[in-house]
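Let's practice the habit of predicting before peeking. Look at the sequence and jot down your guess about where helices and strands might fall. Then scroll down.
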Amino acid sequence: MKNSNAENGILPELSAGRAFWLSTIALLLPVSLMAQEPQRLLLEMANAIENLNYKGTLVYLQAGQAETFRVFHRVEDGEATEKVVALNGDGVEIIRTPGEVICVFPDQRKVVVEKRSGSQSELSPLRANLPKYTPSIASNYTLRLLGEDRVANRPALLLAIDPADGYRYGYRLWLDSVSSMPLKIELREIAADVPVEELFFTSISLPDDLRKELVQPTVNTDAFTWVQRGDADDHLSTPLADIRWRAVNLPAGFMETVAKLEYQTEASGPRTHLVYSDGLASVSVFVDVGIGASEQVEGLTAVGATNAYSLMVDGFLVTAMGEVPAQTVQLIATSMELQPASVTRLR
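Done guessing? Here is the structure:
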């Protein structure tokens, strides 16, 4: 029904009517109530991305390079299965089911199956680039409705998420006017007023039903090698007190959200992994031991919107990286200190 309504010209009329009421409400309601509209749209976006059926072609632009994907998302009995097919390179396919992630590598004739965890959602290019609404956003960002636009031949509401300072990027989100499905996402350097990453659908449909075979491997994998990987962290438990590294100078609003030790094959010791976040932007800090002089790469590196800053601290290689401006990773990396064993860690 949604697609037939669009063909009959009903969606543009609904969209125009919504724009009229938004402008009218803006004149009648207090600012505090109007601020709830962007928040509601973000929550609706999160619901749409997980609970709607959709298929489309997705383009990801970063550092002057373009990657194109076909995305199929199917919901049955409240559970989602998604297939993402890379149209560039070797045609890798990633299938996310409720319990596992299946990666198909046609060129290697191999299939890798991993237990699904929270971090596996990053394998979807769409989810990896979507901001999530948290209460802390209001402290560090301003949310605004900028008006209406059109993406992939669908009417969209344009939502801005502007940072409070230069230590974080901003967002521009084009959300489908009817479903709140994200049609385009820009990660923006606000000071320069330019996008540093873009993700957008060139075509998309939201059918009531999606055939099951569309979220199954495209190629016949019967003769492929299948590799089952368990969760490497299942058997590891690191007391928080054993992690003594801490950032002593953080941008306003950032706080530690993850602290763990990662054990790697052939490494001389465990790697410390910390994450600092303001509820939207996040920075990962890795502290490595046993780094030889030839492996020490200090200073700033960047790939698209991702910046990383490395330096040696007391014989350890400290690297801070994330989709944040360069000054953010440099500030956090240079503020890392190894605390005395007697210092109690506060979270």
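How did you do? Confidence is low (pLDDT under 50) at residues 1-35, 231-237.
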